[in-house]
Design a protein that fits this description.
With about 170 residues, this protein is α+β, with helices and mostly antiparallel strands. It has a single domain, classed as Aminopeptidase, CATH 3.40.630.30. Helix content is about 35%, strand content about 30%. It has five helices and seven strands. The chain is globular. The model has no long low-confidence stretch (mean pLDDT about 95).
């Protein structure tokens, strides 16, 4: 699988990324185009896209911090879901990094959300018990509770406080 990085919205792959992004996340969990442009300006932000035989398989958007990597969004193109690509991408991504990976998922309210948690646990993630509220991406929406998952081990309270600060003051400020 080929991994390419999109660094600006003029990239030829950006339009496919946008389609997969819009189809994979509810509007209140999506960056606006202006927010995406600001994220591209941050040295911490990366948007990795995965291609197989020049077909767009999926993407991981992430923020690289000194002691951990925050996966903001991960999605597989609908044509390739259920074929093991999600776990392959995460496994490959984790092997290239030498830091704890941190991501958020929706609270467990139904079979879909329960299966998502099982998927991430199968990929080596641990559930963290912090009461976590993600700030809104858009003014018309409210902050919403999410569950924090991390690789290797659950994070400490100090690590959670650092993530909470980084999320509020760096990720969401861009």
């Amino acid at each position: 699988m080929d991994i390419l990085e999109i660094t600006r919205k003029q990239d030829p792959l950006f339009s496919v990324f946008k389609q997969v992004y819009a189809a994979s996340f509810p509007i209140f969990e999506q960056r606006t185009e202006e927010q995406q442009e600001r994220a591209f300006q941050s040295p911490n932000y990366h948007l990795a896209v995965y291609l197989k035989e020049n077909r767009f398989i999926g993407f991981i958007s992430y923020w690289n911090f000194s002691t951990y990597i925050y996966i903001e969004h991960l999605a597989i193109h609908e044509n390739f879901r259920g074929q093991g690509y999600g776990s392959s991408l995460l496994d490959e991504f984790n092997k290239r990094q030498h830091k704890t990976l941190l991501l958020e998922i929706d609270p467990i309210t139904d079979e879909v959300s329960a299966n998502r948690l099982k998927f991430y646990k199968k990929c080596g993630f641990f559930e963290n018990g912090y009461k976590h509220i993600h700030p809104p991406y858009r003014n018309a929406y409210q902050a919403h509770p999410l569950i924090i998952l991390t690789t290797a081990r659950p994070i400490t309270e100090d690590e959670y406080i650092q993530f909470s600060f980084d999320l509020r003051d760096i990720v969401m400020a861009n």
